[in-house]
Write a structure and sequence with these properties.
- By secondary structure, the chain is α+β, with helices and mostly antiparallel strands.
- It has 12 helices and 7 strands.
- Helix 10 (371-388) runs antiparallel to helix 12 (447-457).
- It starts with a helix and ends in a 5-residue tail after the last strand.
Length: 486
């Protein structure tokens, strides 16, 4: 591990390139040297075979010339008819034949061909001795055709043996080439396996670090700040892990400060608010005894504002406790369809008051999660939909199982959320233009922020998406993994 930490991502990439290129370079060099060796051997064999073939043909031609000259010499056996140059011509052909045999032996032929060459030479010598020995009495020991029959047979045997020799040489050359090809394939496969194993090891080291970074970033995004960020591997990736750990501690400090601030503000509001409420109640009693209608109207407005302020205080306390351990409960199996139907039933009075029609397309979805938080998500989304829907409007709810996650969509026919506001809609205390419009009940602006926190606790995602065709209201989609952990 220490050795890997000394290497940076750039060093590992360079190392991987070198590890991949070196075996390839060795394979190419081995193939080049092998092909060079085979090519040189092929040229040598071809040159030898060419020279040997040319010499063999010359030997066979000279053997045929000897037979023709010998027959002519014997035919003109009468000294009165024989010309002086006849024997000289015969001797010249014999000398050329002997030279061809000598040249053939110099070409490093195998022992079998050398024996046949010597045999051919001896038979020619015997024929020559027989012809010269019978020159005076014109009486050959063997008929000339019979004597040259053995010479022709030896020549034919030499030619056939040389053909076998050539076939053998080329077979050896082909076998050597095939052996080289097989060796190249084996060595290339071995080098490729070594290179692949080395690259796989480097990729394993890098991918492990990248997975650790990805997991750490996901946890930070989901607000899971309890687990320290640890990244092993290349030094620069480990450095990024250290920076993420620093960011985690900073986020923990900021989150703690934010929660503490909201908690303190909520508690600081409680005491003055209780005093104001008590005073308002006394004023209401006095106004009722005096019959002062104007004072009663002021007290009613004061009471409404006190209720709004109390709602803000309660929301602040609730939001400040989102990440506390007191609200975290063990996950349990839930039927989201039944939970949705229960929440909708609780909103029936509000729906009836505005004559809002509810359309639901609910599929049975079983999810593991925190029942209290999941119910709060549905309640907040439905509360916003009812609040911003016009009278006699329509709210559409869709619930389905997409395979690995649950999808919940809530859509209304209200003013909707413009594109430039969607990035801020889930921020605490943010109230868009639609929320500030006349006739829309005011709120603290924490509803969608709480939804986002609860969705993040389930490792899910919440987003504002475009309305359906021919619609203009807000459409919010919540996606939660079916087996998400809290």
């Amino acid at each position: 591990m220490k050795f890997k930490n000394l290497l940076s991502l750039k060093s590992l990439i360079v190392l991987g390139f070198v590890v991949a290129v070196i075996p390839l370079f060795l394979a190419v060099m081995y193939a080049a040297f092998g092909m060079r060796e085979t090519s040189a051997l092929g040229r040598t064999v071809n040159s030898q075979v060419f020279e040997q073939t040319k010499t063999i043909r010359l030997v066979l031609q000279r053997a045929s010339d000897i037979e023709r000259k010998a027959k002519l010499f014997v035919l003109l056996s009468d000294p009165e008819l024989r010309q002086p140059y006849e024997r000289q011509s015969y001797e010249t052909v014999r000398a050329s034949f002997k030279q061809a045999l000598s040249d053939l032996l110099k070409l490093q032929v195998d022992n079998r061909i050398a024996l046949l060459v010597n045999e051919l030479s001896e038979k020619e010598n015997l024929i020559y001795q027989q012809i010269i020995g019978s020159e005076g009495d014109n009486n050959l020991k063997l008929p000339l055709d019979e004597a040259f029959q053995g010479l022709r047979e030896s020549s034919y045997t030499l030619s056939r043996e040389f053909e076998s020799h050539v076939d053998h040489e080329f077979n050896e050359l082909r076998q050597m080439s095939e052996s080289l090809e097989q060796g190249l394939l084996i060595k290339g496969a071995a080098l490729l396996a070594i290179s692949s194993a080395a690259i796989a090891l480097l990729l394993l080291v890098i991918s492990r670090s990248m997975r650790q970074l990805d997991s750490s970033i996901r946890r930070l995004g989901a607000g899971e700040l309890d687990e320290p960020v640890t990244v092993h591997g290349p030094s620069d990736l480990a450095f990024l892990g250290n920076r993420l750990e620093w960011l985690r501690t900073r986020l923990m400090e900021l989150e703690s400060s934010k929660q503490q601030f909201m908690h303190n503000v909520a508690h600081e509001i409680e005491a003055p608010l209780a005093g104001i409420r008590y005073g308002a109640e006394q004023m209401a009693d006095e106004a009722e005894l005096d019959g002062n209608l104007r004072q009663q109207d002021i007290v009613r407005k004061l009471g409404a504002n006190i209720d709004k302020l109390q709602a803000v205080s309660d929301e602040l306390l609730r939001y400040s406790k989102l990440s506390s351990q007191s609200e975290t409960k063990p996950k349990q199996a839930l039927n989201m369809k039944e939970l949705l139907e229960t929440v909708v039933a609780d909103f029936q009075a509000a729906l009836t008051a505005k004559a809002i029609e509810m359309r639901m397309l609910l599929r049975p979805v079983h999810i593991s999660g925190n029942a209290q938080q999941l119910r709060a998500i549905v309640e907040q989304l439905l509360d916003n939909a009812v609040k911003f829907s016009p009278p006699k409007g329509e709210i559409r709810i869709m619930l389905r199982d997409s395979g690995t996650q649950m999808e919940l969509e809530v859509e209304d026919e209200g003013p909707g959320i413009p594109l430039d506001e969607r990035g801020h809609a889930f921020e605490p205390f943010y109230r868009g233009k639609a929320a500030q419009a006349e006739g829309i009940p005011e709120g603290p602006g924490l509803g969608l922020a709480i939804v986002k926190e609860y969705v993040a606790n389930h490792q899910g995602n919440v987003e504002i998406i475009d309305a359906r065709q021919d619609q203009h209201g807000a459409r919010i989609r919540v996606q939660l993994p079916l087996n998400g952990e809290i």
